[in-house]
Amino acid sequence: MMPIPQTRQGEQKESPAEACPLSLPSASLPKGGGAIRGMSAFGAHPDHNIFALILLSKFLIYAPLQNLAAIVDHAATLRLRDSLSSRENVGEGRLGEIVRIFNTRAEPTPSPKQGDFAPVFLGLLPTRSCNLACQYCGFLTPAESQTVMDLKLARDAVNWYMDLVRQAGAQHAEVHYFGGEPFCAEEVLDLTVPLARLRAREAGCTMRFEVATNGTFGQKRCQWAADNLDTIVLSLDGPAEIQDQHRPRKNGNSSFEAVVRNARILSEGAVDLCLRACVTSETVDRMPEIAAWFCRDFRPSAVSFEPVQPSPQSVAAHLVPPDPWAFALNFITAARILESHGVEPVYASSDIRARRVSFCPVGQDAVIVSPDGTISACYLLQRDWEAKGLDLHLGYLDGSAPHLDADAIAFARSLNVWNKPFCERCFCKWHCAGGCHVNHTSEGPPGAYDQLCIQTRIIALRNILKAMGQDALAGDWLQDRDAMERTVYQASDALLDVR
Amino acid sequence: MSQALLYHCSPAIVWVKDAGQTLLVDRETGQSWLLHNMEAVIWDLLIVGYPYEKIIQMISLVLSLSEERVEHTLSGVLRTWQKAGIIHPSG
Predict the structure, then answer these.
(1) Do the chains contact at A195 and B49, CB–CB below 8 Å?
(2) What is the pTM of this model?
(3) Counting C-beta atoms within 10 Å of the first and last residue's C-beta, which end of chain B has fewer, N or C?
């Protein structure tokens, strides 16, 4: 094993700690902060937001709300713990500097949304239908899939949202399109994009459009998308043999050529292209190869890898989620390739720039309008929420008048990491915020991490070490499975719990 | 105008969009046109293949104008573009 660097260049070697303020842009910083009423108490203790992760023979001290990360030895970790618990003076020097940062430089603790209803974005579901028959897709709902959003409803939804934006004096507005495949109801986009842009001009705010698509549209439509949208999240699972196994057309034909052609067209435009690959146990070892191919043939701004979400369809197709260790290690290898090409690797729950209480738009007052006019907090299927015992309906849109249920909004806001005790002492809690409220269970005894937790913790830790410039240390850690397991399965990451 | 009337743009025309405006350029003559507001919306709908009547319906919804008023403006815009050689009827 390589010696762990104790110092950075030019620093004194006898220093017991290497502190590295993380100059990371903070995403989704809440306004205000302070006392939070009606919450479970775990997050109220600010010292529970300071973490220590065993890392080979050292410890990583991580204080995301102070933008601080430091590599220290065990003795220094104990002194920092004692200083935190008893306010023991550790004197001047490196440890004193760390304690000073602990005590003085915290960002506001991320807090759930309060006050006036102010949607973070408008989500439109033009239709649940799709022209592909993806083998793992849980959105295949014959009963709902034929419905297409009426154009008047689409107009009313945009006008309602833009009225809220204008009344709030917001400087920015966003419309996101989900599906099914949004371009199976392209009239909705053709109507709402110019309408929202017009309303944004009237309100004096900026406007952004994002779509999640399978990318099988024709060339004219692709050019329209490049001209009119800001971010396109394009699903492409890999080379033809993977793409066509996972994502065939409904008639069984290949989708590969159309998606690749359109990814190339979009690569030439100004639109932010995010390529999204769904990973299974069979394709996990090909993630680095897929990343290299994406960089070679396209110009994405970001590449997202996500493990397949189990569904009855995926089970029937024998497509199973990858082993979380294999996923994380291959993600990191793929990330290095992407980063060397200036492409951002994305595994959403490990985004260490994020400071959030909810992984997704649920709880942030996002409004998702369905083709039947119902307004909900989540774009997943109602049957999936209900299976988890959740009701994420917020109301409905009837003509231009929205009918919103204040209790439903309060309930959606309560779905946040403050109410997930399992996450209380995890160093990722302000980054992944417990993951998807519907598909991820944040329950169980401390340290009973599931697949999402394991891969999130590995990738997030690598991201922190990379931000510190500790690539060599990360490399050593990633090659030592025993050391990784000691870190990943640590039941509590709280510095106060270090023994 | 016929209900099924479609238009296509001349092969010499290229365009770029920026900040809600659309700049058309004739690659052969170098002539250019800057489209704003309703004209820019008409252009977007026309180039993805909407027929005349559908364009009227869509713009009426976007701008909250009567279909009669939209048709009056639309027919004038399309005549101008046809005269300039930007578009041709095709169906």
Answers:
(1) no
(2) 0.89
(3) C
What is the interface size between A and B, counted as CB pairs within 8 Å?
40
Nearest CB to A194 within list B41, B48, B49: B41
What chain B residue is nearest to A218 in terms of C-alpha separation?
Answer: B48
Residue A430 has which token pair? 């302000």
Q: What residues of A are in contact with residue B58 (Cβ under 8 Å)? A: 151, 187, 190-191
Over residues A105-128, the pLDDT tens digits come to 778 889 999 999 999 999 999 999
**Helix A93-104 vs helix A74-86: angle between axes, to the nearest 10 degrees?**
40
Q: For residue A342, give the amino acid letter.
A: G
The angle subtended at Cα A450 by Cα A445 and Cα A455, nearest 5°, is: 130
Q: Which of B16, B44, B48 sits opposite A194 (nearest CB)?
A: B44
CA dist B17 to A95, A248, A270, A272, B36, Å? 55, 33, 10, 15, 10
Give the right CATH number for B13-86 from 1.10.10, 1.20.144, 1.20.1530, 1.10.287. Answer: 1.10.10
Where do we find the tokens 């809220």? A164
Across A86-107, b (16+ Cβ under 10 Å) vs e yields eeeebeeebbebbbebbeeebb
Helix (H, G, I), strand (E, B) or coil at A62: strand
Eight-class DSSP state of A64: G
**Does the distance separating the beta carbons of B45 and A190 come in below 8 Å?**
yes
Q: Which residues contact A300 (CB under 8 A, 6 or more apart)?
A: A263, A267, A273, A274, A275, A294, A343
The interface predicted TM-score (ipTM) is 0.91
Q: Do B17 and A228 touch (CB under 8 A)?
A: yes
Q: Residues with Cβ < 8 Å from A28, sequence gap 6 or more?
A: A110, A354, A355, A356, A364
